[in-house]
């Protein structure tokens, strides 16, 4: 519950930033896959990639649907450098037509993205043994 209280203001901030500029989850990844091992894959959000090798934490993930729209949080963990994850999302989100609206960098870093009708917060928390990735997607408040 404390985690939700922490991230809720971040989602609100991302929604507000996007508003100024713009009027259960699947086990298997979706999207096109090449013959080589994919560098990333799509899970429930068809426009937000996840680096291959990240392990989904199902009991910390939640997706809800309204019509065709999906919102919620997907949580992953792996032994990966937080800077490499930040760099991954800076380029991957641009390829999926997301616009970076803001960010902060610390032990817990967050990237705020927006596109028409929705916002996304990518939160990266570096621990002593592994790094946690949370992907929050919410509708834009208009």
UniProtKB/TrEMBL annotation:
Residues 1-23 form the signal peptide. Keywords: Signal. PROSITE patterns: PROKAR_LIPOPROTEIN (PS51257). This is Lipoprotein. It comes from Dethiosulfatarculus sandiegensis. The lineage of its organism: Bacteria, Pseudomonadati, Thermodesulfobacteriota, Desulfarculia, Desulfarculales.
């Amino acid at each position: 519950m404390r985690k939700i209280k922490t991230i809720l203001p971040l989602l609100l901030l991302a929604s507000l930033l996007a508003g100024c500029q713009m009027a259960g989850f699947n086990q298997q990844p979706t999207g096109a896959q090449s013959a080589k091992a994919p560098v990333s894959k799509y899970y429930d959000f068809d426009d937000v990639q996840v680096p291959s090798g990240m392990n989904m934490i199902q009991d910390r993930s939640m997706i809800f649907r309204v019509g065709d729209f999906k919102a919620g949080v997907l949580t992953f963990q792996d032994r990966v450098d937080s800077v490499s994850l930040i760099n991954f999302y800076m380029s991957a989100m641009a390829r999926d037509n997301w616009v970076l609206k803001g960010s902060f960098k610390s032990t817990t870093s967050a990237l705020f993205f927006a596109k028409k009708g929705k916002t996304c917060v990518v939160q990266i928390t570096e621990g002593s043994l592994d790094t946690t990735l949370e992907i929050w997607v919410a509708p834009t408040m208009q």
